[in-house]
């Protein structure tokens, strides 16, 4: 029996392993294994809401082990430290308990087919002080760590009273930085209802720092310009064309030697694939550690290794690479599922073609802006307000449907709706 290992349970990895479980695992035609360093899945575009406490991972996350029991695959908890494509095995780091005692030694998982879906992490470009003084939002653990620090700072501002302000600096004007900026103001206003009458959005000062000429560089100008206007209405100070050269305890230092004071600093600038990828012998990778693939999404060097999501470097006909977005990960997962089934039957494999259905940026409850693309319109259609918000929420619903099926996804959405009535709107612990 073939052993198919999916390394990484992000948007693409979890959708793929769910499909493989039902098409092959259920029929005992292959053994399917998902490996991830976390016990819980959360849709990555929602991490900024975990970071502000708008979402509680304990109730809104998906436990891999529970999910695997119902979708015909195995789950292994572990952090990949190496892959040997010649011996066809994944090497996992040892596991320790909270007292530093080894629970599991370094171990290997063999495979017949491997799917690399390890996503991406923030790229600090070696900027001094970033690792020591900035928070990252690459995982739900990091997001929860920031949420605890944020709540502590809110309590400090509330207790001190007066004209005290919480200064927050965000480096990176991509979707994460922009959406987090707006969400911070929303959360500050919500705290009034939870024993902090002194708190409001006026107590928060947010500096959004982007090294490029404008925020949201991967999106059309109209979306970026509208998002900037909305942020400035909220009170966000948007710094474009501003490169950060150092992070200090008291704030960020720019290339012009200006110091942007901050109580909290978040680094959301640039992405790269995990470091261990550059040590895998024989792989072709980019300078950001992404794995180069053929049109079939197989590694250029190893046909038994597929790559999907943010760690995939797939070149398009125009010479550009497929952008690291949730929609591309979803499309890649669908194609790799088809190609794995075809390879097992000895059939020819399909080539991947990225279809851009548009982009949306959600500015908390204040606004949503974006563009939609499809067969019914030529080019793109600019959308904002309620329509854009509806489409944005629908993307998450489609993800839930892909990993749970229609019936259970609808039950989960209904439960979340009910939960909003009985639970606090913020995680307060």
TrEMBL record:
Its keywords, alphabetically, are: FAD, Flavoprotein, Oxidoreductase
- Ranges where the FAD/NAD(P)-binding domain occurs: 3-333
Q: Which cofactor does it need?
A: FAD
Query: InterPro entries, per this entry?
Result: FAD/NAD-bd_sf, FAD/NAD-binding_dom, NADH-Q_oxidoreductase
Residues annotated as coiled-coil are: none
Similarity section: Belongs to the NADH dehydrogenase family.
Q: Which PANTHER family match?
A: 64 KDA MITOCHONDRIAL NADH DEHYDROGENASE (EUROFUNG) (PTHR42913:SF3), APOPTOSIS-INDUCING FACTOR 1 (PTHR42913)
Name of the protein this chain belongs to: NAD(P)/FAD-dependent oxidoreductase
Q: Which organism is it from?
A: Marinomonas ostreistagni
